[in-house]
Q: What sequence folds into this?
């Protein structure tokens, strides 16, 4: 498995093109600040978190596919044993000669949970901004949109060494608390290169998510899903049974395909290494591995009816979210 430090500094060979270094793109590409995340509230007005397959019974502004006696008529179906006789539709019963009952759709208040990955692999980019920056920006946009729509907002922000958990609550104070935790998370200053620790952190964060999420929640996971194993897939499948899941898959262009043939100098801010990309077999293996990983993630989402939304480090987060989730009108 090929792993890279956090940024490309310069190519050794003049024949190789140099991807844009995050350090050269301006403030905000390697770190987020609380004022910058708060300022995204205006942009979030153009983003809509439209209710989808909400899966639990309750009361509030969003509709549940679970049927029951409520304020809004939904449909008529054949009478089943145990149905309340007070809901019989006598007109349809008389017309068909068989008993039919009315169904009503109950409304529910929705909880929105933002699950934000701050593991070491998220502090990488060759174009645009670090994956962690894009995750924080997207989380802020989604959080503001949830607040505008009256949802209860909660979050989980995790790395290999720190796990922050915020239970869903209504209003702006919970969102501001979440944005503060994103801006000051210890992962911005301290990283680890231990793949085993990264895999364990992912599993543990999903376990905690399952304990926090109430049925019927909208759960948005912002990550590059590095080290996604069978145990993680099982936990996602279990979450998807009773919740609506959106996976925001964050990647840098260089993770999809190696840069043009040449020798590149890479740095994590402390040390340097050389990346040689001339070998055609290496380039094809690298590309094929990324495609295989993406196909596995897509199959997982299709199987359990989860939404997969790509977000590149060079993409504008609002536009990517609008394309995947909708535009507020």
A:
């Amino acid at each position: 498995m090929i792993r890279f430090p956090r940024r490309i500094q310069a190519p050794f060979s003049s024949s190789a093109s140099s991807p844009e270094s995050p350090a050269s793109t301006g403030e905000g590409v390697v770190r987020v600040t609380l004022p910058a995340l708060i300022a995204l509230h205006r942009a979030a007005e153009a983003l809509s978190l439209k209710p989808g397959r909400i899966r639990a019974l309750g009361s509030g502004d969003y509709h549940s596919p679970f049927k029951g006696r409520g304020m809004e008529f939904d449909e008529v179906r054949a009478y089943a044993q145990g149905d309340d006789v007070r809901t019989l539709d006598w007109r349809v019963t008389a017309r068909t000669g068989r008993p039919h009952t009315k169904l009503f759709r109950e409304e529910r208040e929705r909880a929105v949970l933002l699950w934000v990955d701050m593991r070491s692999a998220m502090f990488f980019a060759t174009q645009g901004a670090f994956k962690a920056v894009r995750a924080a920006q997207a989380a802020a946009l989604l959080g503001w949109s949830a607040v505008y729509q009256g949802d209860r907002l909660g979050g989980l922000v995790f790395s290999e060494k720190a796990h922050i958990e915020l239970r869903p609550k209504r209003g702006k104070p919970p969102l501001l608390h979440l944005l503060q935790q994103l801006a000051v998370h210890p992962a911005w200053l301290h990283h680890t290169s231990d793949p085993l620790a990264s895999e364990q952190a992912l599993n543990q964060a999903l376990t905690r998510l399952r304990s926090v999420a109430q049925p019927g929640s909208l759960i948005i996971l912002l990550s590059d899903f590095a080290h996604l194993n069978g145990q993680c897939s099982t936990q996602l499948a279990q979450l998807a049974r009773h919740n609506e899941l959106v996976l925001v898959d964050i990647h840098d262009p260089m993770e999809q395909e190696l840069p043009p043939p040449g020798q590149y100098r890479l740095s994590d801010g402390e040390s340097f290494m050389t990346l040689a990309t001339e070998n055609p077999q290496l380039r094809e293996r690298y590309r094929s591995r990324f495609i295989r990983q993406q196909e596995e993630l897509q199959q997982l989402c299709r199987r359990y009816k989860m939404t997969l939304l790509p977000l590149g480090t060079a993409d504008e987060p609002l536009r990517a979210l609008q394309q995947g989730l909708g535009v507020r009108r």
Notes: The longest helix spans residues 280-303. DSSP finds ten helices and twelve strands in the chain.
